[in-house]
Structures are given as structure tokens and as C-alpha cells.
Design a protein that fits this description.
Radius of gyration: 21 Å
Number of helices: 15
Strand order of the largest sheet: 1-2-3
Helix content: 40-55%
Oligomer: single chain
Order of helices and strands: HHEHHEEEHHEHHEEHEEHHHEEEEHHH
Shape: globular
Structural class: mainly alpha
Distance between the termini: 67 Å
Number of strands: 13
């Protein structure tokens, strides 16, 4: 090790927890602020586009990742890393673009061309509406609506734009193939052929919440109550390493299950007939951590200060890494975005990643997407869906800001109350009848 390397490491080790969290949030935000698409303001899908493994160019922007980025920029404004008026203007730029871009019954595709607003196919049959990505986008936009609550003409106009986009989403259209199910995808060329019912425990809790909470196109309550928990790997009920896991596949699945929906949905003391969501997310995180400490495959680097399996890039391409899909790849977003659930354990990983591995892991937009010490491989990429949760969940750990904002939406309060949720953010929700079963949408 050179003297310069030693000095850099010594300097990094002197940061307090707050200083380190400030640094990680500020640096990671640059992915959305500095690297955002110059024409539309949206978040680019990834930084290493147009490669053999990822045939998208830098004009490919992501709808769900943009929702995460909007929430991150709000955290940045509140921390003083960004100017609030400039964040407002960036969100306004995004909504102006979204008004004119492709949408399908109000539902946005997974990817858009940042220059033209045209849908970019995610796969052959996935070239239309993506309900899950749209729910992530709406979560971000509704959070912005609640944050920019002033009486100025600029903030009023922004809220109006957000409301129009939110109220235009035809959630019920995605039940038109089967009124008992909420389907993930619709294509103008392939109809509901791809389908994918939103069932079994995964990242789509917020999709169900928003679909039921919609003031204009709500879906039947029975879909959440009966169909969502009917899928494979919804109930778990097993104990691993002394940790009880209420929901999810064996060993919990990838950690983004505990992150994406819960960037906005506040899980602390949140319960319904299916689960205690704080217990679920804490235990899912601890199960993921325990797997890495036990390290059944003998990968290098795994341990108490280096754990966290979730979706992201790897030495072979991309995968939804989990204890049952373990390729030896640690994703920084996994443990860092779990700070609300495992504050001491996640902070231990964060310090190791920055202080000990920062020479190879730390770059212009924070931590690179993943690394595999057994393969001597480190990603050269950043992904919007991994960078966003880092900023947002650090902030929720520190202040609860994004939880407070999203859960303050009257529609969300009423909807979650109607679905049978209880929790501190719902205590002041006014009584409101649950939406009646909507008529089956007409088919073209």
C-alpha cells in the first residue's frame, strides 16, 4: 500500500457517522442531479449504457428510478445539498415531459426515450404499460406534491400537474383481463399476453396500495385481500438462524423487497391481516445478513462487515441476487438501504465499504453497483433503482422525511385504512368507505 493510499484511508476513517451519511447522500444524489437526462430531467436507467450486456443508450430513462430520484432530490433539498426551488423546477421539467410522453391508459412504460418521450421496449412483449414502475413513479410524484405545498404560483402549478398525471392512471384497466387479478403489464401489440399477476410477496405492495387508493380508477379491495396473498411465496412462517420470517420466498428473496415500496410506505408499527411490516423488513434484512455471515459457498469478503444481496450488476451481467441466487456479489445498496431496519449492522458495512474498500468502490456518484471479491470484479456501473434507495432510506433512517411526506397523502391514508392497515401515520385518517368494485373497463 502506498503512503498516499494509507493517507486516504486514514482520512476516511476520521468521519463521524453524520459526516459519512452526509457524504454518501450528497455524492449519490449526483447520479440524479448531475447525470439526469439533460432534455427531460428524468433519471437515466444506468451509467454504462450501450454496452454488449445492456443494449440501451444514455437517452434511455427509467420511470420507476425517476420516482426514487425525485424522493432523493427532496431529501437533498431538505438537507441543504440542493436548492429547494431548483428541485421544484427539476420536478416541473419532469412532469412537463411526462405529460407529452407515451403512456397506455395513463400507465407509463418501464423505459422512455429521454429525447422523444417514446416508449423503449424492456423486452419483446414489454413495450407498453408497466404498472409497478408506474407506482414507483407515482410514489415519487405524490411525495413531491406533499413537499411543495406552498401557495406560490409555481408550487400550485406543479401540484396541479402531478394530480393530473396521478388521476389519469387507469389502475382498473390492469384488471380488465381478469377482474380478480391485477396484472403487471399491458402491451398495445400483445395485450395482456405477458400479464404477470401481482401476487406473492415481492416489491409491489405500493402498487396495490395506490391501485386501491386511486380517486379516479380504483380496483376492487378483494384483489389485495385475496389475490395478492394467494401467490407462491407469500406466507413464509419459517425460522432461519433463529429469525422468524413472516412473508416471502425461502430466506426472504432479494433485499429490494424491503426497500422499493417502503421508500414511501412507512413500515414502523404498520400492520394488517397479512403481516407486521416492521418485523417483516427487519427480519428479512437479518436473514440476508445471516446468510452472508454463514457464507455457505465460501465467497471471499463475506462477513459481519460485508453483506447484502439484492438485484444489480454482476460479473456475468445482471441478476436478482438473494440467498437462493447467490453469486458472490455484494451490492452496496442492499445493506445501506436497510439502515432503518439494522442501523448498527448497516453502518458497520457502510464504514467498511467506504473506509476499507473505497479505493475501488467509491466513484463520481457514490458506491459502484456491486463487487465480487472471489472474482476480483468491481462494477463500473451505477443503476437508478439502486442509487435512489440509498439516498431515500438513509434519510428515512435519519429523519423519516419521505415516510412522513408520502403517508401524508389523503388518498394514501384513506386507501390504506380501507385495506385494513393500521399504524401511526394512519391514526388521523378520516373514515371513508372503501371504493366499490369498479365496473369492468371496456376493451378496445
Amino acid at each position: 500500500m502506498s503512503k498516499k493510499d494509507f493517507k486516504n484511508r486514514a482520512t476516511r476513517k476520521r468521519l463521524s457517522d453524520d459526516e459519512l451519511l452526509d457524504l454518501v447522500q450528497r455524492q449519490t444524489l449526483k447520479y440524479f442531479w448531475d447525470f439526469g437526462h439533460p432534455d427531460c430531467g428524468m433519471a437515466r436507467e444506468r451509467s454504462n449504457a450501450d454496452s454488449a450486456d445492456f443494449p440501451y443508450d444514455l437517452d434511455t430513462v427509467t420511470t420507476g428510478g425517476t420516482g426514487f430520484g425525485i424522493m432523493g432530490m427532496i431529501a437533498g433539498a431538505e438537507r441543504g445539498f440542493l436548492e429547494k426551488d431548483e428541485v421544484r423546477d427539476r420536478v416541473r421539467k419532469i412532469t412537463d415531459f411526462l405529460e407529452k410522453s407515451d403512456k397506455f391508459h395513463g400507465v407509463f412504460p418501464h423505459f422512455l426515450d429521454g429525447k422523444t418521450g417514446k416508449a423503449v421496449a424492456f423486452s419483446e412483449k414489454d413495450n407498453g404499460g408497466d404498472l409497478v414502475e408506474t407506482s414507483f413513479l407515482m410514489m415519487g410524484l405524490l411525495t413531491a406534491r406533499q413537499y411543495f405545498s406552498g401557495d406560490t404560483a409555481e408550487e400550485t402549478a406543479l401540484r396541479d400537474k402531478i394530480n393530473k398525471l396521478w388521476e389519469a392512471v387507469e389502475w382498473d384497466w390492469h384488471t380488465s383481463a381478469d377482474p380478480e387479478k391485477l396484472l403487471w403489464h399491458w402491451s398495445p401489440d400483445h395485450d395482456f399476453e405477458m400479464g404477470l399477476p401481482l401476487e406473492g410477496w415481492n416489491e409491489a405492495l405500493v402498487t396495490h396500495v395506490l391501485a386501491f387508493s386511486s380517486p379516479t380508477h380504483p380496483v376492487d379491495k378483494k384483489i389485495y385481500e385475496e389475490h395478492w396473498p394467494s401467490g407462491a411465496h407469500f406466507k413464509n412462517g419459517q425460522s432461519r438462524d433463529g429469525i422468524d420470517l413472516p412473508l416471502g420466498p425461502p430466506e426472504g428473496g432479494p433485499l429490494f423487497f424491503a426497500h422499493y415500496s417502503f421508500l414511501g410506505i412507512a413500515p414502523k408499527d404498520l400492520k394488517d391481516k397479512h403481516a407486521d411490516y416492521w418485523e417483516q423488513n427487519c427480519n428479512h434484512t437479518l436473514t440476508n445478513r445471516a446468510h452472508c455471515i454463514n457464507n455457505p459457498h465460501g465467497y471471499q469478503g463475506y462477513g459481519e462487515n460485508c453483506w447484502g444481496l439484492t438485484a444489480g450488476d454482476n460479473h456475468e451481467g445482471y441478476a436478482a441476487h438473494s440467498p437462493t441466487e447467490d453469486k458472490g456479489v455484494i451490492a452496496p445498496t442492499a445493506a445501506i438501504s436497510s439502515l432503518p431496519y439494522t442501523p448498527q449492522e448497516s453502518m458497520q458495512v457502510l464504514r467498511h465499504l467506504y473506509e476499507d474498500l473505497g479505493d475501488k468502490l467509491w466513484g463520481p456518484y457514490g458506491f459502484y453497483d456491486g463487487f465480487n471479491e472471489s472474482e476480483n470484479w468491481t462494477a463500473d456501473s451505477y443503476l437508478a433503482i439502486d442509487q435512489g434507495p440509498i439516498v431515500v432510506m438513509i434519510e428515512n433512517h435519519r429523519s423519516g422525511l419521505l415516510w412522513d411526506l408520502f403517508m401524508s397523502c389523503p388518498e394514501v391514508k384513506h386507501g390504506m385504512k380501507g385495506l385494513g392497515f393500521s399504524g401511526p401515520h394512519l391514526d388521523d385518517a378520516a373514515a371513508k368507505p372503501a371504493p366499490q368494485k369498479p365496473p369492468k373497463p371496456s376493451r378496445p
